[in-house]
């Protein structure tokens, strides 16, 4: 299957979804007006990936900002990964937050409370938005 | 008219308005306004946490305007007039922190539901707001704009103050909704 490689824009994140390594990255800002449109190909990709996933899938989320329109879509990504885990594969979520950004840490904890995936909270100095 | 330019300038200065815009908001304009706010805050606000909260609140408020600003035509009104989506946004420095003020036209029929949600949010303590957010996030429901009703809850969480709001009737079908969100350190 094809990988997803999207460069970040002022309103959408950098996306690297690699089916060969099982490494899925979301980095930068996710504040588009129409998030459903942006996230649909990402969600479809995970659905396809779920047919033949790697033994270990890791989703690295490193966001500086995300809007509430994105938050339901990001939850949807997690839910698709729950299905990958339920079929007997390991799935990890690394949720990055900047050292002084307790709001972003809380946002990660909110997802953690809803989603049955192992989350690791990773403190960083600054979101790398390249 | 020309005399009023200074009056307007003077008023904006007195109210410590950092940015003010009235008109139809496009996605491009939202980007431009967010960029401007980010640049201004980088100079004026040393507290990174406050900068991020203000940016978040301005972003959600602008996107509320983008998605919900609406004018319901009244009988005999031209279609072109009904298409206009006039809104207003202002960001001002306050005694402590910032004020994000927005206003838009909306259908009278939707006022009751909006007022109910504003009062619900205003009746919550921070931890209750967090629970409300998690509940709305996890309920699997998408709204037209995608947020599933999370916008106001998120704004209230970032603000940490009660949301100030008002409604002014415009005509038989429309109301002007005003919202003031305070963001304080």
Model description:
The complex is a heterodimer of chains A (130) and B (185). Chain A has 130 residues and is an alpha/beta fold. Chain A has one domain: STAS domain (Transcription Regulator spoIIAA), CATH 3.30.750.24. Chain A has helices at residues 35-49, 68-86, 102-114; strands at residues 4-6, 14-18, 23-30, 56-66, 90-98, 119-124. In chain A, α1 (35-49) packs parallel to α2. Chain A is globular. The two termini of chain A are 25 Å apart. Chain B has a single domain, classed as 2-Layer Sandwich (Heat Shock Protein 90), CATH 3.30.565.10. Chain B has seven helices and five strands; from the N terminus they run αβαααββαααββ. Chain B has a five-stranded antiparallel β-sheet with strand order 1-2-3-5-4. In chain B, β2 (86-93) and β3 form a beta hairpin. The model of chain B has no long low-confidence stretch (mean pLDDT 89). The chains are: A alpha/beta (130), B alpha+beta (185). The interface between A and B is medium-sized, with 26 and 32 residues.
SSE topology sketch:
The complex is a heterodimer of chains A (130) and B (185).
Chain A: E1 4-6, E2 14-18, E3 23-30, H1 35-49, E4 56-66, H2 68-86, E5 90-98, H3 102-114, E6 119-124
Parallel strand pairs in A: 3-4, 4-5, 5-6
Antiparallel strand pairs in A: 1-2, 2-3
Helix pairs in contact in A: 1-2
Chain B: H1 3-14, E1 17-24, H2 27-44, H3 48-68, H4 79-83, E2 86-93, E3 98-107, H5 111-122, H6 126-138, H7 151-159, E4 164-169, E5 174-183
Antiparallel strand pairs in B: 1-2, 2-3, 3-5, 4-5
Helix pairs in contact in B: 2-3, 3-7, 6-7
């Amino acid at each position: 299957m094809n990988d997803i490689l999207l460069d970040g824009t002022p309103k959408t994140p950098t996306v690297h979804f690699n089916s060969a390594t099982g490494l899925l990255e979301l980095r930068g800002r996710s504040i588009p007006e129409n998030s459903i449109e942006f996230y649909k190909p990402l969600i479809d990709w995970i659905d396809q990936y779920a047919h033949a996933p790697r033994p270990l899938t890791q989703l690295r989320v490193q966001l500086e900002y995300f809007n509430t329109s994105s938050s339901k879509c990001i939850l949807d990504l997690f839910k698709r990964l729950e299905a990958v885990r339920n079929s007997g594969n390991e799935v990890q979520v690394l949720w990055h937050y900047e050292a002084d950004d307790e709001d972003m840490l809380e946002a990660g904890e909110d997802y953690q409370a809803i989603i049955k995936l192992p989350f690791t909270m990773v403190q960083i100095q600054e979101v790398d938005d390249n | 008219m020309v005399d009023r330019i200074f009056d307007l300038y003077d008023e904006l200065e007195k109210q410590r308005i950092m940015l003010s815009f009235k008109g139809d908001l496009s996605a491009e304009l939202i980007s431009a306004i967010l960029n401007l706010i980010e640049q201004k805050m980088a100079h004026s606000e040393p507290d990174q946490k406050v900068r991020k909260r203000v940016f978040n609140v301005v972003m959600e408020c602008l996107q509320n305007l983008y998605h919900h600003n609406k004018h319901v035509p009244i009988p005999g009104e031209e279609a072109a007039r009904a298409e206009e989506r006039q809104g207003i946004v202002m960001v001002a420095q306050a005694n402590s922190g910032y004020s994000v003020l927005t206003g838009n036209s909306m259908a009278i029929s939707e006022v009751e539901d909006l007022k109910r949600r504003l009062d619900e949010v205003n009746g919550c303590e921070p931890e209750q707001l967090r629970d409300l957010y998690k509940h709305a996030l996890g309920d699997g429901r998408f709204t037209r704009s995608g947020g599933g009703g999370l916008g106001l809850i998120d704004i209230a969480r970032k603000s940490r103050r009660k949301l100030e709001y008002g409604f002014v009737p415009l005509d038989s079908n429309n109301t002007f909704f005003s919202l003031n969100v305070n963001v304080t350190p």
